[in-house]
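hi support,

uploading two proteins for the ticket. first:
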Amino acid sequence: MSDDRPMRKPEPTRRGWLGVAAAAFGGVALAPGIRLIEVAQAATAAPSAGANPKVRWGLLIDTTKCAEGCTDCVNACQTENGMAAPKRSTDPQWIRKVEIREIKTGRRASVPVMCQHCAEPPCVDVCPTGASFKRADGIVLVDRHSCIGCRYCMMACPYKARSFVHEPLADQLPDVPRGKGCVESCTLCVHRIDRGEKVTACAEACTKAGHGAIVFGDLNDPQSEISRRVREAGSTQLRADLRLDPGVRYQGL
């Protein structure tokens, strides 16, 4: 005799529930960190809204025109981004002047160093949350809402270009949100770029001071001043051996 009553689905066992949970969370319980890295890679794969993928923003710094002891670019960066002058080595600083000397000849040079906005940024590779990311136009940024302050990116950066905010911040500028417990670095004045402006605060200040040591522009545009000068005079990448393809280039080193 047939039974026409609908069949009831079996209740899931405890082992079944664990299996469903593991699948839903992508293996977090079995391999902590793997899922976070996958999320970070997915977040950085898509071009950023508003960023032109045909553009590669960068800086060209002519060290032969950069005066030793001059801090015009550093001061302009601090003013533009609402930062106080650093009093301790741990205070945030997005541009620092490095004085170098060639051992054989004794020739000295003053070199501004900031985030190099690499095409292959190691800070993005190690970030577990996707807070460190590269825009479609080559600018490398930190999303302070996603940053958990682990500082892996600071350890991964070969240029020591990132800072950690240890203290509470006040009187912040609306265009440059910052926060305690987050990592930060040079943004190539992305707020200016997104408004349609074509110069960073450091390049603008250097030009106004009459030095002309910093040029900002599109490395992908063969007609831009930065591309023309790189093409005609060549340029040097800091730690070119790492093959990170920095967007900041130097001349005179």
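and the second one:
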Amino acid sequence: MRILVIEDDKEAATYLLKGLTESGHVVDHTTNGEDGLHMALTGAYEVDVIDRMLPRRDGLSIITAMRSAEIHTPVLILSALGEVDDRVEGLRVGGDDYLTKPFAFAELLARIDALARRSLPEHSSTRLLVADLELDFLKHKVTRADKTVHLQPREFRLLKYMMQHAGQVVTRTMLLENVWDYHFDPQTNVIDVHISRLRAKIDKDFGEPLLHTVRGAGYCLREPD
């Protein structure tokens, strides 16, 4: 999922960005409240993680402005202020959850997942299915023909994107922007390497291949003819 982190503490930000990226998420980060508000109002994020005490604009005023602008992205507030009144104030201005520093990363990740689930439209599915290949993006689990397929975080993001565009040709530019969060071509074979690894895991030991190279165009994940 795409997550916005507004955190001015360098050590905390590094910890968050490293952990979230390694968990397979795309993360945008800023260190001040003014830029954070602009990103929160204009970006398409599934969860925002906002520190309460920030330079140029505090976290609670960011949330207040978001809610006034009808931006309903779930917000997890981070703060060293952990008294009951502090937590209540954060929730009353529109925060969805409140986590006191210091915190365990596993708990933060679980809270982010819970906020993402809560924001899903009623009756929406958390699973993607192409033929006998199934991906559950909340359980972070992939199976084919009921056999578990073990993927690295980047491979999982790649497969999720391909399954969301099943039957369509996906270009290198689309993959670079949406899976690697690159807005330029690094002129490497990083996509080819990951496609090869993914193909080996989801196709090699199964009957019909699902992941295809479309010469001169890109890649396509589709059901067998």
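thanks. also noticed: Residues 127-221 form a domain with the Arc Repressor Mutant, subunit A fold (CATH 1.10.10.10).
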